[in-house]
Design brief:
mainly alpha; 3 helices; rod-shaped
Length: 46
């Protein structure tokens, strides 16, 4: 039996994973500098 299989079956690991996933959903990353520049160029062109 693999140690990784044992870890994935622990309830605390699953709980921590769900909390981490929900925290990531709350904080949406800001667009990068290149993406913002591209959006401005597209806006100016239209």
């Amino acid at each position: 039996m693999s140690f990784a299989l044992l870890l994935s079956s622990l309830p605390r690991i699953e709980l921590a994973r769900s909390h981490y996933t929900s925290l990531l959903a709350l904080h949406e990353p800001a667009p990068s500098l290149i993406a913002r520049l591209w959006q401005r160029l597209k806006h100016l062109r239209s």
